[in-house]
Amino acid sequence: MKILSDIAALLTGMWITWKHIFRRPVTIQYPEEKRTPYPRYRARIVLTRDPDGGERCVACQLCSAACPVDCISMQPGEEADGRRYAEWFRINFARCIFCGLCAEACPTLAIQMTPDFEICKRDIMDLVYEKEDLLIDGCGKSPEYNFYRHAGIGVTQQRGEGIEEKRPVDVRSLLP
Amino acid sequence: MIYDPIDIALILAKIGLVFFVILTLAAYLVFAERKVLAWIQDRKGPNRVGPFGLLQPLADLIKLLTKEDFRPIGADKWLFYLAPAMAAIPAIMIFAVIPFGAPLTLFGHTVPLQVADLNVGLLLFMALSSIAVYGVALGGWASNSKYALLGSIRGLAQLISYELSMGLSLVPVVMLARSFRLSDIVNAQSGCWFIVYQPLAFVIFLISIAAECKRIPFDLPEAEGELVAGFHTEYSGMRFGLFFVGEYINIIVLGGLAATFFLGGWHGPWLPPAVWFALKVLSFAFLFIWMRGTLPRLRYDQLMHFGWKILTPLALVNIVVTGWWLVLRG
Ligand code: SF4
Ligand code: SF4
């Protein structure tokens, strides 16, 4: 009989919800109890330094080009020795969607995501972070990497002195 | 007829008490509903305002009172303002005929714990619950909004259909008690509750009152998810609050009536009568909340089919069988 199986289905549902009344809630009471996010969680963005303490960012604009909501802007500058840096660097966290594309685009691993997700502010203008707010004193997730040691020819080292770089071949030695 | 001033004072005190208890209970029913639904869904529910969140209804009230009172362009002003009251007031008026405890003796007067012991109490209940339909119909119609209109059309059809089966399921009760007076119906059950003689009528009545107070699985007039909020889509602030509180008053009142008609009203062993009555009403309220946490909403054609082709014929057959049985028993 269909009606009997229907009633049985209703009662089964009622029984399941009844059992759930006595389950322990899975709620995390947020401001008091906090859950530790995973290390690769994508939240507040930082600019890291290389192991020698220099700024990693070379103001190449790749992150700002990758950003789908256009919330990164910067002004590139150049030191006397030819090393590029950002004169100012600004991320508008009110617009950021924490997609992580900027961190993926960055060739120097300067821009990185951190698990710090609590960046609420009363005033929306306080969510515009300047370079001073973004720059940290550590290397972030890749402690060994130093972009200039690989590619900083003529700035930090002479041609052929970089890591994993072969010395230039003396073309005359190749002549027959 | 000359009234004793003490009598009048006692009646006024009863009215005040009923008002206070019903409104407080309705507010806390909202809270209880949120809590129980949360438990069913493995959540904690409101627990921030006051100890265990117990002051939440008060916070809700303040919120509703301070919200903007909005009226859409093109809405019918007077009907729009009148409809919430038409939904809430009949609901609370029905409670006047429900006996909620054994008669007391105070200052040498016998005080029936019932605001008005009318000899047509049951009919008054049917009439008032029909008036409550106007709140839904006019509220949706006056809002000048398609969602509200659809909601109120559904509400109208649903409430009228299920009122029929509700009324028919009460006929056997009247036949057994031989009275429309609610206190007589309760007294007729001092030996054995009517649910024992009339389990079918009880089930039909229970389903019909779930439909009457527009609860899931019969919440088609509101149907958030299809109709935004149905007939009260355009209401805000305390006018919405009136619809909302009216719905919970309806739960209390209809639960009280179900207890009165089928579960012996305030009759019960050991505990004081008023406590028994409250227990019965609250268990009906819990049942409704529990159902809301479990069942999905019916489709419109299923709702109509169920009401007209199943409940109403069943109730009619039940009346005939009860009649035969009463005649055979003599
Ligand atoms: S995380 Fe996404 S949205 Fe935010 S700054 Fe980076 S690229 Fe832009
Ligand atoms: S953070 Fe990275 S991608 Fe962005 S400008 Fe600096 S070096 Fe380029």
Q: What count of structural domains of chain B?
A: 1
Question: Per the principal axes of the C-alpha atoms, what is the gross shape of chain B?
Answer: globular
- Characterize the largest beta sheet of chain B: strand count, sense, and whether it forms a barrel: 2 strands, antiparallel
The helix/strand series of chain B, from N terminus to C terminus, equals HHHEEHHHHHHHH
Into which percent range does the helicity of residues of chain A fall? 10-25%
Terminal-residue CA separation of chain A: 97 Å
DSSP summary: helix tally of chain A = 5
Overall radius of gyration of chain A: 26 Å
> Low-confidence runs of chain B (pLDDT<50, min 5 residues)?
none
Mean pLDDT of chain B: 85
Give keywords.
heterodimer; A: 176 residues; alpha+beta; Alpha-Beta Plaits; three-stranded antiparallel sheet; two-stranded antiparallel sheet; 5 helices; 22% helix; elongated; B: 330 residues; mainly alpha; globular; binds iron/sulfur cluster
What does this 3D model show about the protein?
The complex is a heterodimer of chains A (176) and B (330). Chain A is α+β, with helices and mostly antiparallel strands and 176 residues long. Chain A has a domain at 37-151: Alpha-Beta Plaits (2-Layer Sandwich), CATH 3.30.70. Helices cover 22% and strands 14% of the residues of chain A. In chain A, the strands form 2 sheets. Chain A has a 3-stranded antiparallel beta sheet. In chain A, strand 2 and strand 3 (84-92) form a beta hairpin. The longest helix of chain A has 20 residues, at 2-21. The radius of gyration of chain A is 26 Å and the shape is elongated. Chain B has a two-stranded antiparallel ribbon. The model of chain B has no long low-confidence stretch (mean pLDDT 85). In chain B, helix 5 (146-177) runs parallel beside helix 11 (300-329) and helix 8 runs antiparallel to helix 9 (237-262). Chain B is built from 11 helices and 2 strands, in the order αααββαααααααα. Chain B is mainly alpha-helical. In chain B, strand 1 and strand 2 (109-113) form a beta hairpin. Chain B has one domain. The chains are: A alpha+beta (176), B mainly alpha (330). The interface between A and B is medium-sized, with 15 and 13 residues. The site of one iron/sulfur cluster has 15 residues of chain A, from helix 3.
